[in-house]
Amino acid sequence: MSRIASTFKRLSGQGRKVLIPFLTAGDPEPEFTVPMMHQMVEAGADIIELGVPFSDPMADGPVIQRASERALHHRVSLRRVLSMVKQFRERDSLTPVVLMGYLNPIERMGYAEFVAAAQDAGVDGVLTVDMPPEEADEILPLLKKAEIDPIFLLAPTSTSERIKKVDAVGQGYLYYVSLKGVTGAGHLDLDDVKRKVEHIRALSTLPVGVGFGVKDAETAAKMAVIADAVVVGSVLVSQVEKNSGQPEQIAAAITTLLSEMRAAMDKAG
Amino acid sequence: MATAPEQLKNYQWPDAKGHFGRYGGIFVAETLMYPLEELNFAYQKYLADPQFLAELDQDLRDYVGRPSPLYFAERWTQELGGAKIYLKREDLNHTGAHKVNNTVGQALLAKRMGKKRVIAETGAGQHGVATATVAARLGLECVVYMGEVDVERQKLNVYRMSLLGAQVRPVSSGSKTLKDALNEALRDWVTNVDDTFYIIGTVAGPHPYPAMVRDFQSVIGREAKQQIISQAGRLPDALVACVGGGSNAIGLFYPFLEHEEVALYGVEAAGEGIDTGKHSAPLCAGQPGVLHGNRTYLMEDEDGQIIETHSISAGLDYPGVGPEHAWLKDTGRAQYASITDVEALEAFHSLTRIEGIMPALESSHALAYAMKLAPQMDKEQIMIVNVSGRGDKDIHTVAQREGLHL
Question: Coil, helix or strand for B397?
Answer without folding.
Answer: helix
